[in-house]
Amino acid sequence: TSSASSCSSNTVPAPPPPPPIASPPPPPPPPASKSLTPPAPPPPVGMMPAPDGAMTIKRKVQTKYKLPSLNWIALKPNQVRGTLFNELDDDKLYKVIDFAEFEEMFKLPGSGGLLLTNGTHEVDGLTSQPSKRFK
Fold this sequence. Notes:
A hairpin with a 5-residue loop joins strand 1 (114-115) and strand 2 (121-123). The protein has a 3-stranded antiparallel sheet with strand order 1-2-3, with no helix packed on it. The chain is 24% helix and 6% strand. The chain has helices at residues 2-10, 77-80, 84-87, 90-96, 99-106, and strands at residues 114-115, 121-123, 126-128. By secondary structure, the protein is mainly alpha-helical. The longest helix is centred in the N-terminal third of the chain and has 9 residues, at 2-10. The protein is elongated, with a radius of gyration of 37 Å. The chain has a domain at 59-135.
C-alpha cells in the first residue's frame, strides 16, 4: 500500500477550466423622440435614385417580330463609368426612335415578312433565299 500512496502524491492537479466568454453588451437604445409616430419608411426601390456610379437594371423590351441576336459581352459598372452608356436615358430614346419602323427594317425572315409565290421572303424590297444546305 505504500507504493499506492507515493503515486498519488506525485500527480499534478488539473488546471481550472477557462473563464466563460462574456457576450458583448447590447446596443444602446435609440434616442427618445418627441413624437410617438415611427419614422417614415424609405421610398420603394424603383423610386430611389441610384448611388453615384451605380448602374440601374434596364427593362427588357418586347418586340413584335423576331429580331437578329447580337453577340456581346456585358460590361461591368466600373467599365462604363465616364462613357455615353452611363449617361443614356432609355425613356428619352423610346420617345425619339420609331421602334415599329426599326423592327420592320431588321425583323428576321419568317417572322411576318411577305411570302412570295416562289417560296422566298421579301422584307422591305430585299429578297432572302432559303438555305440550300437544308433542302
